[in-house]
Amino acid sequence: MFSRRKTRVIPFQTAIGARDYHAGDGCRAKVPDQSIPYFAIFSSGTPRVMQDNLVQIRRASHTHPVLDKAATSGVRRRVYIQTVGCQMNVLDSELVAGDLLQAGHELVDSVRQADTVLLNTCSVRQHAEDKVYSALGRLKEIKDRRPGMIIGVLGCMAQKDQHQILKRAPYVDLVVGPGQLGQVPMLLTQIVAGAGPQIELSLDRTGGSRASVAESFVHFEPHRTAQTRAVAQQAMVRIMFGCDKFCTYCIVPRVRGPEQSRPAAEIIEEVQRLADDGCLEITLLGQTVNSYCDASGPTPIRLADLLYRLHDIEGIRRLRFVTNYPKHMTDDLLTAMRDLPKVSPYLHVPAQSGSNSVLQRMKRGYTVEAYREMLARIHAKIPQAAVTSDFIVGFCGETEDEFQQTVDLVRDARFKNSFIFKYSTRPGTKAAELFSDDIPESVKRRRNNDLLAVQNAICLEDNQPFFGRTVEILVEGPSKVAKKRHPKGGSASSLLKKGTGSERIAANAAENRGREAPVPLFQQAAGNAPDTNPATPPPCPSANAEATADQEEVVQLVGRTTCDRIVVFDGPRSLAGRILPVMIEKVDAFTLFGRVVAD
Ligand code: 5AD
Ligand code: SF4
Questions:
Q1: Ligand 2 atom nearest residue 323's Cα
Q2: How far is the first Cα of the chain from the last one, in angstroms, to the nearest whole number?
Q3: Whole-model pTM?
Q4: CA of 64 to the centre of ligand 2 (A)
Q5: Considering all CA atoms of the chain, what is the largest pairwise distance in Å, rounded to the nearest integer?
Q6: CB atoms inside a 10 Å sphere around CB 363
Q7: pLDDT in tens, 188-220
Q8: Any idea which ligand is nearest the CA of 288?
């Protein structure tokens, strides 16, 4: 019924002309000639297993005979991409969108206009998966009326559920894991040519040696275009792929594969290109970004070293990196942050729990004392640092006392923000195998709300001193309020119903961009930025746009400080992408309101 190609990357020399390839897990995998440009590793052979068990990321070529073919073969689809999940997914969608554009396809911003709908999915919590399956149900109805429609499931759910997706939703045409996204244009061409449903996945974590599994997660690097970014001046750059931590609750190591670091030279080149393109802010991405290590040269290059090198790139004004793992918060990294003015004093370092016994069950590999000691080191070295954290409440066996220890940590740490999640059991994880998901939903919800209330009070207190201050912000574009009031170029539709029982918390949702929130797949321009302010603050009456004596219509805009604080002010859309001083005239727990002051 469908061709199940469980692929792995093979050396270029081997790939040339290859037809059948025997994958290590006994699955006979077909490597079509057409896929060669995507698989070819021009830097050769088997990856070296590096220090710290890191493997160098394999890189797919994007000089594109296949894409050119797609572009000239008359296959021109109108593609709508809907993204669920973290910033990694937002970046993946951007890359797929860029690749599709390059291949001659068109990107549209609603299902109505589309003949191809791709859902880039998240598996971190059940709730995210449920949303995707219900979106698929809605898409089926549309496809029944428009039979030529192509529906694709990309990303983490594709890798996790594999052919189950086609069992549950047989009208799906395309299932592509996060390590195979570079193949999407070619697969679309094949579907249009009548090849039937296509599945393209990386190997399972147990599907071969560590090196071969790592190889099967291919980093792809299409030419990046500002057109597919929410804000042209802000770009994410992946510096690592995968994760080896295997926290017991977490599905990520299974769906995103082994931890691999990209070569520093490649990252520097990419950031240089982005800077040449007018990018001002770079966010480096990795599941455990501070364990980055390029060990391919004589001296390993760690995150701190990389920051020094990126700091030298002219045009880049802000450098950030997420997500940090507490154990890898080394002094040299903090020193780099202190000494490099372009590096934002902002650190997202998930604690997950304030209880040692819970941390142990989660297999986080540190104690709460060690976490507190790390916080003390951060604040000693970078007093102005804003630290944010993630917490899971209602993890297996969490007692009231253990939960209270989490509350204590949040109170003492005074995080700038905390992202709080109710535990969601994930089949395929150690926690699902070893422990019972025994905390009732009502208790999870109550703990979630209690912890949130503590965090929100801290947020409000911490925002008060900003009153009257001038902060420097990077303008991201119109706020949600403005977009609702003044839709420009049509508003992006979302396939994903928000749902009343969302585990996301209104408060920190305001800054939770990309975390399990539906992100409209494709942004038309900076003016159509994903909303960063779902708290929908009212316009600040005192805000004005004197400094921008522009004839353009004045709308409510949103921007961020280097510490990731959301600032709302009024001004013309043309300010999007600018770094500006804003005087704060009003604050609430999640938002600073102000007005632009003259430079
Ligand atoms: N249930 C609830 N939250 C989870 N996270 C990861 N796995 C789960 C799960 N099974 C949370 C963690 C992580 C964030 C991205 O998602 O807090 O840091
Ligand atoms: Fe998941 Fe833990 Fe890896 Fe983070 S460090 S991605 S929580 S396994």
A1: 4
A2: 63
A3: 0.83
A4: 34
A5: 68
A6: 15
A7: 999 999 999 999 999 999 999 999 999 999 988
A8: 2
